[in-house]
């Protein structure tokens, strides 16, 4: 492992809850000199706020459809509430966190999805601003909104898993960790897979065992893997999940893409 190569950690699901140690792990790694980038989701909070405002959430293949109206909630909740809460927590842990979104510095651009509305499904990352922050020893925390490739651009909802994959690819990250709320990718018997090869992945996708929120992780994870990153999907609810994925690669729980 190259200790100077960036580590990209996608936090989401229950890892945004009270009891996980992921942010503590990220702050500790940063303090040891490791460049760390956090990318966050927050689907449940967006759905919660949509309901409070009397709107309904709709999904296709694990991706949220987004209208002009729901985009307002997406931006407010992801780039506002959740992003600032994570920055607050990281600063409380002593890490020099800087919150930004993929809009800022033109960091994430994507064509607008034809099937999902104001969503970028295939983002590309311009890593300049993130690299500037890393050179300045900051800890960037990215909210998954970005810009369309139109001229002039529009703000889009970007799936956080796709955003993390694109950022890992552009930064030539050594390791991309998807923290989620299941112990690993599960097979058709519900058993955790320590490793997942492309052929097994295709089979499990085709029979519907891999579905919903796991799909964008694997699609984006494969893209980052092709760019040279090791990709692991791990249970963010476990104490020290990030630390163990780094320091104890063999015994680390979760699934590694091979
Ligand atoms: N084969 C599978 N193995 C494990 N989990 C799966 C599988 N297929 C689908 N899933 C679902 O994927 C979910 C994880 O994705 P989900 O989008 O819900 O959370 P997240 O990406 O961690 O958080 P967020 O979307 O808030 O960023 C699991 O809770 C599980 O229901
Ligand atoms: Mg998700």
Our measurement of the CA-to-CA distance between the termini, rounded to an integer number of angstroms, reads 16 Å
Briefly note the structural class of the backbone.
alpha/beta
Count of the domains: 1
- So, the CATH homologous superfamily? Acetylglutamate kinase-like
Given this structure, which CATH class is correct? Answer: Alpha Beta
Q: pLDDT below 50 for ≥5 consecutive residues: which ranges?
A: none
The proportion of residues in beta strands is 15-25%
Strand order of the largest sheet: 5-9-2-1-12-14-15-13
Q: Which sequence of SSEs, written as H and E, runs from N to C?
A: EHEHEEHEEEEHEEEHEEHHEHE
Listed once per kind, the bound small molecules are: adenosine-5'-triphosphate, magnesium ion
CATH topology: Carbamate kinase
- CATH architecture type: 3-Layer(aba) Sandwich
Instruction: Please tally the β strands and state the result.
Output: 15
Quote the average pLDDT. Answer: 92
Structural description of this entry:
The protein is built from 8 helices and 15 strands. By secondary structure, it is α/β, with parallel strands linked by helices. It has one domain: Carbamate kinase (3-Layer(aba) Sandwich), CATH 3.40.1160.10. Strands 5-9-2-1-12-14-15-13 form an 8-stranded mixed β-sheet, sandwiched between helices. A 5-stranded mixed β-sheet has the order 7-11-10-6-8. Helix 1 links the parallel strand 1 and strand 2. The longest helix is centred in the first third of the chain and has 25 residues. The radius of gyration is 17 Å and the shape is globular. The relative contact order is 0.18. Bound molecules: adenosine-5'-triphosphate and magnesium ion. The site of magnesium ion has 5 residues, from loops.
